[in-house]
Amino acid sequence: MFQIEELYSTYKKDLYQYLLHLTHNPTLSEDLLSETFVCAIKSLPTYKGNSSIKTWLFGISRNLWLQSLRGSNREQLEEIITVQYIQEGMDDYMIKKEMASRIQELLTEKDEKTRKVVSMRIHGYSYIEISSQIGISENSARVLDFRTKNWIKMKLKQEGLYYEEN
Hints:
Blueprint: H1 4-23, H2 26-43, H3 53-70, H4 74-86, H5 97-107, H6 112-122, H7 127-134, H8 138-158
């Protein structure tokens, strides 16, 4: 399958840059990089190839970073996850605290059902779980989530807090 030395030499620089971007801390980034490869070694036999090996490694490193945050400031973790939810699919995973606060403010303008759908998505619930807990269809949950993300992005663009890369 894969030689761990080959994986390390191929992806260490990209993973380190990614972790540095997330943590803004070189020492923590190095520690998380090491932990990523330790976890990868342990998990390599169960790697199914559903994603590229690079995507798999980045997922491991992101999860380790989130675990490190869980041990620290809960409020900071909540802000980061909220922002990542809105920026899903973008390369930039961290933004200023001001933007996260603004997103929370914008969400207060929405009705309770919409806020609940968004909150549950931010916390990793599936659309099926959301639909059963809120009492709406799965498709309605998807539509509410999609429209709310787009509305937030539009508001943030108008305020100069969000830029999409072309």
